[in-house]
Design goal:
Distance between the termini: 18 Å
Number of strands: 14
Number of helices: 6
Number of domains: 2
Strand content: 25-35%
Oligomer: single chain
Largest sheet: 5 strands, antiparallel
Helix content: 25-40%
Strand order of the largest sheet: 6-1-3-2-14
Order of helices and strands: HEHHEEEEHHEHEEEEEEEE
Radius of gyration: 21 Å
């Protein structure tokens, strides 16, 4: 995000907006990854329409950077979009107008309309499915926009958080009894410690050591070779090859995993990132 902080982001308040969709619809995005781009486009269209309504049709344009992620809290497949958006918009003369409040329910309805229209147009769902979804008390669509920062520096920090690797090293564990790699969700204030899920195809392959022979902090190596790549919920595999995570505190990304893909050790991104708009 260093380039974005210097060249892209304006020194105005920004907000993180997270767009999620119902579990019932996620299967379409799981098996047709081209639809992930449509998901990002739907989120952006809904956000632009929300700004148009909020400013009563005035010529006010927000700036936004979008990040598409595919993993949930327990690395399950969970496609969702993070958008770092200015908390207001720019007039043609360059002046900045602050957004008059933020209503997540209104934006949620706009997102629902865009997603359902897109899936109907592509023949993936029919009018009966749409009518059924519209009767749900809780739609399954969700908008979270409570995180707001005041300036460019805060926006850059928020952007770095949004593009982090989805797998945190400190949440990996090894169960000696079952010989399985576990991954623990973050604790919450309401529930307390999060649940732990066994990662399919995971194994601990050895203990890492410093050059002088002593163990590294949290120094273990894990290999994942799932028969179905999508079971990890991360877009890092094209086939049943191995992914190695080394839980060495010196790896790039700080407390997050630094993967090595396949025998060559070549690195690939563990998230999808779309910088699709800066107006």
């Amino acid at each position: 995000m260093a380039w974005a902080e210097q060249e892209l982001l304006e020194d105005v308040p920004h907000r993180q907006v997270v767009f999620t969709i119902p579990k019932r619809l996620r299967i379409f995005f799981r098996y047709d990854r081209k639809l992930l781009g449509e998901l990002a486009a739907c989120a952006w269209r809904a956000l632009r329409l929300y700004f148009d309504v909020s400013f009563d049709g005035a010529e006010v344009t927000p700036g936004a950077v979008g990040f598409l992620q595919t993993s949930g809290e327990l690395l399950n497949f969970h496609p969702h979009v993070h958008i770092l958006v200015t908390d207001g918009g720019f007039r043609p003369d360059g002046s900045f107008y602050h957004l008059p409040g933020f209503n997540s329910r209104h934006l949620e309805r706009l997102l629902r309309a865009e997603i359902l229209r897109t899936l109907v147009d592509k023949g993936l769902i029919g009018e009966e499915t749409v009518r059924n979804l519209l009767t749900w008390r809780h739609s399954g669509f969700s908008i979270h926009g409570a995180v707001r920062v005041k300036d460019r520096q805060g926006a850059a920090r928020l952007g770095r958080y949004m593009i982090r690797c989805p797998l945190a090293l400190k949440r990996l564990s090894w169960n000696e009894e079952t010989a399985q790699v576990g991954y623990t969700a973050r604790p919450t204030r309401r529930v307390g410690p999060g649940p732990t899920a066994a990662l399919a195809g995971g194994e601990r392959t050895g203990e890492l050591t410093h050059s002088h022979g002593s163990p590294t902090p949290a120094g273990f190596q894990y290999r994942f070779t799932p028969s179905k790549p999508e079971t990890l919920g991360m877009d890092i595999l094209d086939g049943p090859q191995s992914v190695i995570f080394e839980t060495d505190s010196l790896c790039s990304g700080g407390s997050h995993a630094s993967p090595r893909i396949g025998p060559s050790g070549a690195r690939r991104s563990t998230w999808r990132c779309f910088h699709y708009c800066r107006l």
